[in-house]
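User: Run a structure prediction on this.
Assistant: Running it now.
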Amino acid sequence: MREICLPLTKDVIKKLRPGEWVLLNGPLLTARDAAHKKMVEAKRLPVSIKGETIYYTGPTPARKGQVIGSCGPTTSARMDPFTPALLKQGLLGMIGKGERSKETANAIKRSGAVYFITIGGAGAYLSEKVSSIKVIAYKDLGTEAIRRLIVKDFPAIVAVK
């Protein structure tokens, strides 16, 4: 498997192939439906997403001794209405589960970004790949707040690029 250092670059994305397994290493953001809606409606984003990768997850609270609770992927199609606008803001990567609409897949390709899928139903396993977590925006959204995670050997598959 190819190891990918985050944040992504367009040069790295150009080398990826659909169906390829990768291990992601470095910082990424988390955001789900509510955060996406707020970002698209905001006059100014609370955090720069230029060059960032967003993982569609709403992690559960960490148990004692854990960095994060279960953090499995959310169905990506729910973010489709917001994705083109965020791609225009410089978003380069997304991680979730499931298919994207044709319109969203085309927007991802046109912008030179990438959509990864990861293992649905494996939130406890994926949580082991997270070494740190920090809420950075929309704390009022609880589990759907935007967080910065640092991941190590986070497994994903290139789905759309």
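Residues 102-111 form the longest helix (10 residues).
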